[in-house]
Design brief:
With 346 residues, the protein is of the alpha/beta class. Helices cover 38% and strands 18% of the residues.
Length: 346
């Protein structure tokens, strides 16, 4: 069982390493308890697996004919596998959650999310280093990262002088962060990469400056109804955003981040409007740019980036080795662009 940054507990199948679509797979998501029961997956089973969207391994079905009678049904425990606090399942939701907000696994995943490429993008702060910093008591929340010094890192395993200098340099460089990356880094439930951008655009269009203070005094400036009406943000996401900024503990974190010198940048949110709000999905390998660069170009030119193809998708940008997304776009009659056509649109 894996405990995520929101406390969601995800069951994972551990299997004999098997080659699937070009890489060796030994773990696959089982999603939740309902999926385990629906597919009747048991400990000791032989299963068929595939890569969902050509990327994420998942269990498709059980080969029941190969059962020996020694297979065991899996029952969800009553306690978190990491901190042993009670776990719960909300009505209408499939996932179980750990009830302890200070659960070590949640904190570790949250901080790893905070410093990830789509958040603060701090080089050298992988899961192992985050774990070391937490275990040693050097950090307790993301803001503590920005107070680290050479003396703190000197006593840590794997940290030689040059590596310490590189990490501290990367931390200092990350203090100037795009507003949408900052919002994404906070790890607010349901608030993804595109919705963080949509929310940031709304803030810059409706407030002229001092965005840190607006976020700190959030409930004085924005009500739940206003957030619900923001383009790209639905009811559940709005409730989650409002709840997060209403929590005094999160307000304290925002103040702490402001005090350690975090600067929110918004110049990139001024779009030229060439793409007129059209939504794009990106698939395959691009040659002229990375996927992240393509996403930034789409946003900067007034478009939106979606993660999956649907009838609401306006264009699919397809690179080499495009997979199931290209197939679905063709089935739905969605225009497919190569890189040259995409660049021409800009």
């Amino acid at each position: 069982l894996q405990v995520g940054r929101t406390g969601a507990i995800t069951p994972v199948a551990v299997m004999t390493p098997t080659l699937v679509a070009g890489s060796t797979v030994s773990r696959a998501t089982l999603h939740n308890e309902d999926e385990i029961n629906r597919k009747d997956v048991r400990i000791g089973d032989t299963v068929i697996i595939q890569k969902a969207g050509d990327i994420i391994p998942e269990v498709v079905e059980v080969i029941t004919d190969l059962r020996t009678g020694k297979e065991k049904k899996f029952n969800f425990p009553e306690n978190c596998p990491v901190c042993h606090s009670n776990i719960y399942r909300q009505e209408g939701e499939a996932a179980y959650y750990c009830s302890n907000k200070r659960c070590y696994a949640q904190e570790k995943e949250w901080i790893a999310h905070f410093v990830s490429k789509k958040g603060f993008n701090i080089d050298g702060l992988g899961d192992k280093v985050v774990g070391q910093l937490l275990d040693s008591g050097l950090i307790q929340d993301p803001a503590d990262i920005f107070t680290l010094c050479n003396a703190d890192l000197a006593g840590l395993e794997l940290f030689k002088e040059k590596r310490s200098e590189n990490l501290l340099s990367s931390i200092e460089k990350s203090k100037g962060v795009n507003l949408d990356h900052f919002l994404f880094a906070l790890g607010i439930r349901f608030l993804g990469e595109q919705s963080s951008y949509d929310f940031s655009k709304y803030l810059t269009q409706n407030f002229k400056s001092n965005y840190f203070q607006i976020l700190i005094d959030f409930t004085e400036h924005l009500g739940l109804e206003q957030i619900i009406n923001i383009d790209g943000i639905g009811d559940k996401m709005a409730e989650s955003i409002y709840s997060w900024f209403s929590d005094p503990e999160n307000t304290r974190l925002l103040k702490k981040l402001q005090d350690v010198g975090i600067v929110l940048k918004t110049d990139h949110l001024k779009s030229t409007g060439n793409l007129n709000g059209n939504s794009f999905v990106i698939t395959g390998t691009l040659n002229q740019m990375t996927r992240d660069q393509a996403k930034d170009l789409i946003k900067k030119n007034g478009g939106k980036v979606m993660s999956s193809v649907s009838p609401k998708t306006d264009f699919l940008l397809a690179g080499e080795k495009a997979g199931s997304k290209l197939k679905k776009a063709n089935e739905l009659g969605i225009p497919v662009l190569n890189e040259e056509e995409f660049v021409a649109m800009l």
